[in-house]
Specification:
- The protein is an alpha+beta fold and about 190 residues long.
- It has a domain of about 120 residues.
- About 20% of the residues lie in helices and about 35% in strands.
- The protein contains 3 helices and 10 strands.
- The strands form 2 sheets. It has a 5-stranded mixed sheet with strand order 1-3-4-5-7, with no helix packed on it.
- The longest helix is centred in the first third of the chain and has 21 residues.
- It is elongated.
Length: about 190
Amino acid sequence: MASKKLPRTEVIVAIIGLIGVLGTAVIANWEKIVRPKPPDGPTNSNIAPVNKSTPQPSISDPQACLAEFLQSVPNDRITTLENGTYDEQIIGPHQSKDQAIALRLEDSREFVGAIKLQFYSNNAMFKIDSVVDSECQPVESFENRSRGGDKHVIQNYDELEVRFKKGVYALRFGYDAGRINVNFTRAS
């Protein structure tokens, strides 16, 4: 009984096809392979948890408190903005969009407050996690000046208004072409 041998060309084509399918699967799931979700993480990899009632550190030294407030945010995602800043890129196209972002806000080089937020690329919106003033005390006097509603939700290009001890400030967040930009100005 003679066994049938597959022609060598057909075997090579089948192997190339298999490699192509496996390569496509790896490329399509690269983000999950390189950076898997934490076990307690959200079900959608584009959504990071937002805790509206984040307990704030109770440290008497504002600088130490601020360091603790910002410790969960990678250094390359913390940006200092001076009052009058327009169209400042805070996250570039090469940076992940689904990690926390922090902004240190200053007016005439004087620290006025800080904000932690998340960006949701699947809806092109921002969610405010927490806000602290220059003494690292929680700030709840902020709102979406463009639309009202949930003050923690800022749609793309909406304006957030925050009342700090030094005054009222406005921030406009925008996402376009893989970049997150912000304007920071004193409102009153």
